[in-house]
Amino acid sequence: MTEVELYNLEPLLELMAVGLAVAALPLAWWLWRQRHAAASSRLKALTLITLFLTFDLVLFGAFTRLTDSGLGCPDWPGCYGSATPIGAKVEITAAQTAMPTGPVTHSKAWIEMVHRYLATGVGVLILTLASATWWLRRQSQEVSPWLPTLTLLWVCMQGAFGALTVTMKLFPAIVTLHLMGGMGLLALLMAQAVRYDGAGLRPLPAFLRRGLWIGFLLLWAQIALGGWVSTNYAVLACPDFPTCNGQWVPEMNWQGFSLWRELGYTPQGELLPFLALSTIHFVHRSAAWLVLGVMVWVGWQLRQQEGLSMAGRWLLGLSALQLITGLSNVVLGWPLLAAVLHTGGAAAMVVTLTWALSVSRTDNPQRMTFSPRPAP
Question: Which of 112, 142, 262, 306 is catalytic?
Fold first, then answer.
């Protein structure tokens, strides 16, 4: 790969202009459709638009990672100091000629830059959402700006991880944190949208409310494990099912779970052994059965709850999707569509569980109280 300056801020203004252009159409549609709406309705609509486009961004981020396009432009925020791959045509051609299947090709550069354009557009929408919330706060004290402000800070942090993903050459811990940050952004936007509903919270039995929280936490742990599998390219380390390399419980090598190390290497700088990759894969696969069982149980229970049955059906459907795509990644040799859908299913589960938790509360039946017996 051609040596380049990792941080080159010259194209920053042009990239910001592209972000504004990406956000212009949804913003124009929102302003027109919500021009006569109440403040809460306007904020909810903009939040849902931003949530939808953020979900698309997470999917495209998975596509970028799975097509090995993360280093399609080896500097940040532009591409060889240009705002588009067109301006970097000479440099990209030279890198592609030197390594035709390497990290820098014309197609990979375009995929990486489109991902950055979409991310910038989402950033503009979140900035608009936070600004609009603070503006409407002056008109209604019922509008709280703190969650939109947290979301704005979160997306700034997410942008920083995006930059480090490139400049630290796909460092597994950074790439995994970038994935987790995208999922966290979805959760924040979903929780924010629910606050503008104005509907009361749906009561849930205490055991089911606890089950929701357990499922939510387990899902995050499983997404982190899945991200670790993907960022270490360990998906095909166990190419068979239900066994792993012909063994029900393969030999374990825990060096793969050393967090601070370069891609493909141990913390000591040695090549990561294959057994470490199969261990990463096997741990994720084994944990999936626990998470799947909890999700199916929670989804089945929610189907019987008034106002939450739709969330239950979504969880059951998404559980089936995750099972099918997870198996497809193994038995079909990691097909791109199944891999992207696997990430999308996890993201949809985050949104669904966040919604269910945000619109529900524990149903505390009135406890019986006993008056002290009068003295004889």
Answer: 112
